[in-house]
Protein 1
Amino acid sequence: MSEGDLDHIEQLEAKYPDVPRFVLLKLALRYRGVRLLAPATLAISDADYNYGPVQVFRYHDEEALKKAHPGPLLFRDGTTGLVAFEDREVFEDPYVIDHEGGKFLLYSDASKARLVDEVDFTPRPAYYGKRTSSGKPMESIATARAQRMIICAYRHCHFWDTGEQCKYCAFFTDLNETRQVSEKKFPKDVEAEDIYETVREILKEPGRVSEIYMTAGADYEGEPAFEAEVDRYINILQAIGRNFKGRFSSQLMAPAYSKAQYKKLYERTGLTTVCPNIEVWDERLFKWICPGKERFVGRAKWIQNTVDAVEVFGKGNVYTQVIGGVELAKPHGFKTEDEALASNFEACEFYSKHGVVFVSVVFGPARSSVFHDQKRPSLEYFVRLIRGLRQIREKHGLKADNDDYKHCGNHADADLERVD
């Protein structure tokens, strides 16, 4: 499969000349996954590369916590990509990365029969290894991507309490009976002062971060729903804001709040963008795949709240995303790739007309998620998806610069805007 897969990338490159090879490779690596060979594992254990085991949307069993993990992959053109490692997701035939002659080399498969390219990993931020005044390791407060600092303020999703979690999700989970990480490993709440100090520290490293990104597990407590969560974010964003004068480059990925709640966030903090992810557009599939979101918000209200957020934050400052491929999950998903694409393009067209930036990620079968054994569509499906989304956004004068190749590394359709 590996030789054919690489040839297929070359065929896709010929068929879709507007999609750069590195974007195709980024998709393929996320699609097929990556295995680190022993020399590469040893090399990333070095302090310059090792980011540690904490990952927001991955499981954290004892073995995973013992391993060194690198940051985003770095391609030769400067593109970054989030690597899907086989110890946390399920892949049949992953690429492999070896370390030879001081270089990280990407091969088509474990036989190393074909060298694909030389790659690297994003250097570890300087704040890793340091502690807050309360003694917390700063890398446990905030992880980093290419130029994005990611803060998870609440490490428990209450949708899991009743088995209504999104079926593709593995938010802070273990592979145990409850599939929840114990609070002993990772306390649910992160103190605002620890976050303030960690942000202050990363700002000492020039050019290392250009955006503060916040997320957390869903907490629907309060009246109206999610009011406690909104107040938690306000408290933390105000603490972060002590490091800045006025507004600061930031994004909040959270449920689709009411307009009044968005106004509170905007007026009381320096937050600049929000991202209430729809994840799957089709009404029937949304109810099946995201039952917690359906119960506590509802698809129609989720969509309306997202559109209303544009009135607060402005056109192009509200984002949403689809988990590309999840809409084909069996047994209830679309039967054909064309049907799935049509649904996603309909969503992008709707949101774009209302000033919302619609992007995609590649569905990964996380080991501790309900969908751990689902199959995904073809690689070409994702190429067609990212091309179509980018074309629709361009028609409506929208740019996905919040999720471009420098900030996140997880949105190949945003990377396509580099050729504009």
Note: Residues 19-121 form one domain.
Protein 2
Amino acid sequence: MGEQSKKICVVTGSRADYSLLRRLMRTLNDDSKFELQVIVTGEHLSTEFGLTSNAIEEDGFDISRKVEMLLSADTASAITKSTGIGLIGLADAMAELDPNLVVILGDRFEMLAVSIAAYFARIPIAHISGGETTTGAFDEAIRHSITKMSWWHFAAAEEYKNRVIQLGEDPSRVFLVGGIGVENIVNTNLLPKNKLEKQIGFEFGKRNLLVTYHPVTLEQNTEQKDFQAILDTLSELKQTKVIFTFSNSDVGGRFIQKMIQKYVLDHQDTSIDIPTMGHLNYLSALQYVDGVIGNSSSGISEVPSFKIGTINIGDRQTGRLKADSIIDCKPTKKSLQQALKKLFSEDFQTKLLTLVNPYGDGSATDKIIDVLRTNSFPNSVKKCFYDL
């Protein structure tokens, strides 16, 4: 009699993390050594964010459990309550599915609820993208908290691996696999420009920018002022078209979305807003834009692979490892104007030609699967603090 398949439960809370996890999920699903379980929660189950759980099913995955948690508000109180509601549903899901391992990516509040539910159920956790720092967002504390509840750690860079160990995790359980976003790029057949334009209803111009801006959650009510500075700067650009993607469901995210919608209404000839772009359209668009503006992690970890610049605004991503293509600037009109001048400069564009993305070579899934196949799954989540 062969060895019984290990039940591995992958949890996804948004189109953003699903696009990164999809190849890993497919590999697990096709491997007889594993039995894939899928829990969807958060933005996936919200019509406001495109009800993207449908895309998971269209990709051929069976959803094991759907856990509603997202309230239709983005206040601090609503996010706290959403986390609590999610924890209740996830507790039931963990008990019913009883996986041998839970796989989670990143650092959002949905994943905090997942890690608590799994840890209290004494189910080991494999955490992807630990050890990173983002001092301007809740994600910083959430990420490190998840690290302390996790058994295996899959880090995107050497310094992130070292930071996980610094948090007291045994080096034998910490693995350098590279950025899973880079892998996504390498393994995706990107769309040609004419097909992408038809798909998103947007014709690229002489110059093009893609904007993704999320709330800086550790700051108090800065969203309107900071994002207005971005919009004011963009409105003065000549011969430049702008693609906006919507903010996430963090505190203040819906306010940013309303500002985007108003701007696009006033600038219909030069801009478009796409609430749920999807990974294929998003990555394909990066081939044809001159740069990315905002404060998303994608601008730091994925965009450099396209040898284009990222204007990284404010403190949300402060602390992350950055390629030479990242232009840090303050959320002020003057700083943004200086950053755009640098982005379009001949010297900067020349340097981009030899750019190397520090987030690896695109083999993260293969390295993660190798760890799961060659290491014994723990029978207990007990672990000792590793002192340096």
Note: Residues 49 and 258 are 14 Å apart (CA to CA).
Protein 3
Amino acid sequence: MMIKNIQVRTLLFFIFFLVLVAESNAQTACPKPLFVDPTYNGSSDPEIIWNDYEQEWWIFYTGRRPAVKDGIFAGCALGVATSKDWIHWKFKGYCKIDGIGGLPDSPDTYWAPGIIKKGDTYHMFVTFKKGSPGLWGGSPTLIYHLTAPSNDLLNGWTTQGGLDTYPDGIDAGLFAKKDTFYLYHRDLDHKVENSGRSIKYMTSTNLKNWEYKGWAKGDINNEAVNGHNYQEAPYVFYWKNYYWLLTDPSGKGISVYRSDDCINWSFKGNILDVPGRQKTDANNGHHPSIAVVNNRAFIFYFVEPDAPMREQHRKENVFVAKDYYCYLQIAELEFRNGKLYCDRDKKVVPPKNLKPNGRYWGHNVH
């Protein structure tokens, strides 16, 4: 009997050990979804940065409002999620700008923050619409330049002015190459949209005075090459000895362009264009941001898994908030034969040391 009891206890201990190991292994992988806005389930347009002062990663995102039928994309505040390990994410709050805000419903409309650091100051270039009337907010659409000190990236943002992005600019993507800053953005000039031309860029040496360069060069605005007559959310990063520019062509995943000089771009196909198996990842990826850590590249994006139901519900004259829910996700990029690949269903185990080193403080400085 004693031997039998010992065997039972040994078996139970072994089972308990296996459960602990399984839980430990599960905890090493990033969750799916990575993060969801706690107020409206509208987290979109992620921008991940390394917060030097807090020594942790922050994701700034557009806080869409799916529960507000006539203001889903208007009156949006900028939400923040934080993490030290990419596994456990905390909702930090909503940004205050010029001392105003901090709530999920904003008197003005903010979208798609693009952020870069210079010295001890963080610079945000964000899509802005004065007021929040209607589904999409007021007009015109501007790109505003905001700054905040390193020790207050939630409430310390102040407006420095707007950029001249005639006629309407949205979705600023920032990148620093040596002493030159690049800002790529989408132009809302509908007169030329059907020609496939939508991405422009400008350069600066101080983030204040910008030289307008016009249409992005190479394949980006060439519909005959990339098949797109619509693109937004340009994002630039450096990895594997190349400059990469990602765009969101809406409904086709993420388009990838490669360059040797950050100016002339060649089309290298699409990623995240096949829905994932996980429920909250089961649609095309949208509006990406990248973090390169220890020579590994990770893509942060958002997904609207229930978006395909919108058209049916419109025909039925029924509004369903869930059709507009957005979820933040993460996947790891792979580099093979000069192109980028991404298996969004593969578990992402983050590097043990997530702190950036050297000048490469986050993801968009080279």
Note: The chain has two domains: 1-30, 31-342.
